[in-house]
Amino acid sequence: MSFAVPGRAPGAGLPDLRGLLHRHWPLLPLAATVLLLVAPLPAGDATASGKVTPADAASLLLVAVCAVRALRGEVNRLSPLGALVLGLPAVGLAVATVTAGDPYAALPGFVRYLQVFVLVPAAVVLLVRDAREFRLAAGCFVVLALVQGAVGVFQYATHTGASYQGEDIRAVGTFGPGDVMGMATVVAYGLVIATALALAPGTRQRTRRAAAAAALLLVVPLVLSFSRGAWIATFGAALVVMVLAGIRRALKVLAALTAAGVVLVGGFGVGSEMMAERLTSITQVSSAPDQSVTDRYTMWAAASSMWQERPAAGVGLKGFPAHRDGHSSLGLSSGSDTAGAGQGYVRQPLLSPHNMYLLILSEQGLIGLTALAGGWAVLLVAGIRRVAAPDPAARRIRDCGLIAIGLFVWQTTDFLYADIGGPSTVLTGVIIGLAAWWALGAAPGAMSRAGAAGR
């Protein structure tokens, strides 16, 4: 039995869900790539090499959908500069794989790098057609951050988190103690996006208020992650977003965040002692470093030594662990201890220098670093110039620019003391794609002739 209003066709006035799904269905794999990171992984899968997570599978589906639509001419046109920036890293990866001591051992690294730094970013640039779809993708990040942040706060409150200074209080979300940076990373992504939406000129008042509330809420799990690197990168990215949005707005948001921090830490005592100690340790990395900082310095020196040995092409993808001991001093420990959050004691080996630029330099040499980091520099400069440009079309979607620049600044800053690894790595490819979508502003929204004629 069906009911209809007299004088009105059945279903009139209701959203055309079929039309919306038909128009935006290519974004479903992109949304799944982000949102599937809500699901917990079995213990040991978070950092295990060669494991394909549900989010990875969704990203591969995203690439497949992009390939099919590209063959049908239903994707954005890619400018020559875009093709160069997005495709050149593949050349460096191929060189590092072929020249590796064991090319077969380097092949999994080639596939992973190709996925994160070439295929997924290109798919995002080609498939996201307008600002509305960009905002939908960004909204998925905020949803993921709020869910993971809520789990992290619960872990801290109930002492069911990862082990930190003898207590199971470190907020790690569903990523587990084997990937302590996972929750901090996705929460930071959501906080940066929410801050950008709250500051962007022209944003609806309702959206601005919701974004500001989300940003304040996400400060709590970020603090409880006890991740110094995430704190630094988030502060830097938020500061860039504030400056680009306007000094007056920046001062208001900075005052609100400062007040929230004082209330949370000073008033409620949320991790006050441990957070103060963690903050103090940032300034002691050279005078009185702890063992984790000593290990990082030692691995940085090892990566530099590998590059000096093979400056052009490096030691090959996945070659850092095999060459580490031959280039390290005796100050390097055997690994880091992890426990808690439903997992027993595990000794995690140190298999990377925890610096993406040094990892690229040691394994891919100057060829790989120029191809990857050079392209990132182009995207960053072009993106900032477009945000500041007087172009009316760009100003109407300035919120997208603030989001893209904020996320990209966070990622490139975080790469100074972290590298790829863990389930959240796939989001790096999405962020590079969103940054490229904004920076290569002439291409997005302009569909190929065949696709436009078909519609």
Q: What's the structural blueprint in terms of helices and strands?
A:
Elements: H1 17-24, H2 28-35, H3 54-71, H4 80-98, H5 103-127, H6 131-158, E1 162-164, E2 167-170, H7 180-199, H8 205-224, H9 228-245, H10 247-267, H11 272-282, H12 291-309, H13 320-327, E3 336-340, E4 343-348, H14 356-388, H15 392-396, H16 398-414, H17 425-439, H18 449-454
Antiparallel strand pairs: 1-2, 3-4
Helix pairs in contact: 2-3, 2-6, 3-5, 4-5, 4-14, 5-17, 6-7, 6-8, 7-8, 7-9, 7-16, 9-10, 9-16, 12-13, 12-14, 14-16, 14-17, 16-17
Please provide a written account of the structure.
This protein is 66% helix and 4% strand. The protein is mainly alpha-helical and 455 residues long. The chain folds into 2 domains: 54-62 and 73-127 and 290-328 and 347-455, no CATH class; 138-283, no CATH class. The strands form 2 sheets. The chain has a two-stranded antiparallel ribbon with strand order 1-2. A two-stranded antiparallel ribbon has the order 3-4. Strand 3 and strand 4 form a beta hairpin. Helix 7 runs parallel beside helix 9 and helix 14 (356-388) runs parallel beside helix 17. The radius of gyration is 23 Å and the shape is globular. The two termini are 35 Å apart. Mean pLDDT is 81; it is low at 1-15 and 442-455. Keywords: Membrane, Transmembrane, Transmembrane helix. The chain crosses the membrane at residues 25-43, 55-71, 78-98, 110-129, 136-157, 180-200, 207-224, 230-247, 254-271, 366-388, 400-420, 426-447. InterPro entries: O-antigen_ligase-rel_domated, WaaL-like. It is a multi-pass membrane protein. It is found in: Membrane.
